[in-house]
């Protein structure tokens, strides 16, 4: 028993040292774990900051890329706009030169027309009646009245029993305004009448129709209808194939006089200049030559 007590007393300090060492080791291990956890937390925070910095740099790079692309688009659009402005300036200069040339030609033609001898009766006819007031009906009275007003020739409607040629001084040949019309509706010559010109020549029905068609297109053109210009040229070519040369010359002279009168009227009234002046020039150009030159 004494030996056992002696050994226990001898090993007691050693056990205390071992216990202290174990406690110290546990404390150190715990402190190391805490230190490692702190380092890991610090590393995690650093990684998050690095990620945010990388995202910011990527967003900034994207903004710079978009800004560069927008700047390039603006530079391209500006270049196109400058090119367009340059083209417009050249076109404007060209149109201005053409306008000045046209104005000079217009002034020269106006001076030429003013210097030409014009029948004063055209001025009276032009001022007393507007083209808009001219009759356009298809009945016999309207056709004959229009034929008389537009052409201004002396003619008469006489029975077929009358010889083809009559004396121009005969009472049967009177101005159209004083005629008593007896023809059937829709036909100025009718079934029982024919038309006689101022010098007593009978006008065939086909010739009368061609002249009336020519009258309609010419005066529609002078009234400002742009489509009537081409129709007048076609009607003029057709008429000079079917109508007597002297009657065509009378019609051509009358058209030229009316076109000159319309030109002078357009010069006096600016509101009619665009609508009617160029139409008058077209008619003058068409009828300035003899029929065979059309």
Automatic annotation (TrEMBL):
Residues 60-71 have a biased composition (Basic and acidic residues). Residues 52-71, 119-142 are annotated as: Disordered. It comes from the Eukaryota. This is Uncharacterized protein. It comes from Cladocopium goreaui.
């Amino acid at each position: 028993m004494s030996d056992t007590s002696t050994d226990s007393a001898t090993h007691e300090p050693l056990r205390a040292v071992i216990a202290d060492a174990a406690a110290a080791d546990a404390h150190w291990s715990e402190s190391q774990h805490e230190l490692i956890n702190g380092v890991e937390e610090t590393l995690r925070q650093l990684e998050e900051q690095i990620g945010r910095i990388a995202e910011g740099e990527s967003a900034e790079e994207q903004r710079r890329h978009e800004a560069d692309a927008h700047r390039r688009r603006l530079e391209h659009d500006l270049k196109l706009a400058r090119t367009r402005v340059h083209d417009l300036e050249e076109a404007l200069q060209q149109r201005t030169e053409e306008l000045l040339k046209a104005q000079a030609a217009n002034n020269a033609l106006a001076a030429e027309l003013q210097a030409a001898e014009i029948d004063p009766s055209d001025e009276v006819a032009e001022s007393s009646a507007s083209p808009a007031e001219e009759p356009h009906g298809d009945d016999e009275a309207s056709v004959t009245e229009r034929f008389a007003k537009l052409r201004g020739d002396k003619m008469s409607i006489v029975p077929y029993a009358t010889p083809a040629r009559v004396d121009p001084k005969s009472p049967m040949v009177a101005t159209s305004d004083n005629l008593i019309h007896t023809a059937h509706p829709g036909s100025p010559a009718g079934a029982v009448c024919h038309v006689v010109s101022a010098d007593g020549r009978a006008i065939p029905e086909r010739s009368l129709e061609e002249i009336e068609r020519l009258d309609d297109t010419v005066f529609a053109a002078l009234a400002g209808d742009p489509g009537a210009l081409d129709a007048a040229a076609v009607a003029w070519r057709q008429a000079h194939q079917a109508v007597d040369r002297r009657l065509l010359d009378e019609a051509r002279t009358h058209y030229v006089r009316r076109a000159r009168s319309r030109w002078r009227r357009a010069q006096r009234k600016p509101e009619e200049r665009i609508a009617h002046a160029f139409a008058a020039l077209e008619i003058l150009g068409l009828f300035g030559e003899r029929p065979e030159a059309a």
